[in-house]
Design goal:
Oligomer: single chain
Largest sheet: none
Helix content: over 70%
Number of domains: 1
Number of strands: 0
Structural class: mainly alpha
Radius of gyration: 15 Å
Strand content: under 5%
Order of helices and strands: HH
Amino acid sequence: MNSINQTLNRKDAEKRIPILKMEIDTQLGLLHHALISKDMDTVTNCKAKLEKLRREMLLLEI
């Protein structure tokens, strides 16, 4: 039973990682534009979202 759960979790992670990469790319693009336009509220929000996405990516890759 435990091996079935591990297999399912692994498949879920394999599906989630490409989506996370796209979300990170999107946030980096938004951060870039916010930095250029000096929109500090958006910069702060993007950094917070990127931190959450980074943590999720680390958990999935382990």
